[in-house]
Amino acid sequence: MDEAMLLYALEELISDLGVEIRRDTLVDADDGFELRSGSCTVRGRMLLVLDRRLPPARRLEIYVDVLNDMDLSDRYLPPRIREILERDREP
């Protein structure tokens, strides 16, 4: 599975789990407020905000972090995805 297909598969899995993914160009505000990609809960729904400029490797890290915080025990995961998630959990 190449990198583009892996990212697509992770995005699909995240969306299937009910997480809304928003992509935007995140710019720090003039008042010193720093905007970063990541997940949060808004009105009881999980939201993942991604800076459009993120390199694929950073997007992969964020997707793995989000998925490792979720219960995936009842989901079929392709072997490559399961391997990546389990590798990230190792100390």
How is this structure best described in words?
With 91 residues, this protein is of the alpha+beta class. It has one domain. The protein contains 3 helices and 3 strands, in the order αβββαα. The chain has helices at residues 3-16, 56-68, 79-89, and strands spanning 20-24, 38-42, 45-51. Strand 2 (38-42) and strand 3 form a beta hairpin. The radius of gyration is 14 Å and the shape is globular. The mean pLDDT is 87.
Task: Give the topology, please.
Layout: H1 3-16, E1 20-24, E2 38-42, E3 45-51, H2 56-68, H3 79-89
Parallel strand pairs: 1-3
Antiparallel strand pairs: 2-3
Helix pairs in contact: 1-2, 2-3
- Helical residue percent band: 40-55%
Task: Give the N-to-C terminal Cα separation.
Answer: 25 Å
Q: Strand portion, in percent?
A: 15-25%
- Return Rg in Å: 14 Å
User: What is the tally of helical segments?
Assistant: 3
Dominant shape: globular
Average pLDDT number: 87
Query: Looking across the biggest beta sheet, what order are the strands in?
Result: 1-3-2
- Run of helices and strands: HEEEHH
Tally the structural domains: 1
Largest sheet: 3 strands, mixed
Regions with pLDDT < 50 over 5+ consecutive residues?
Answer: none
Give the structural class: alpha+beta
In total, the number of strands is: 3
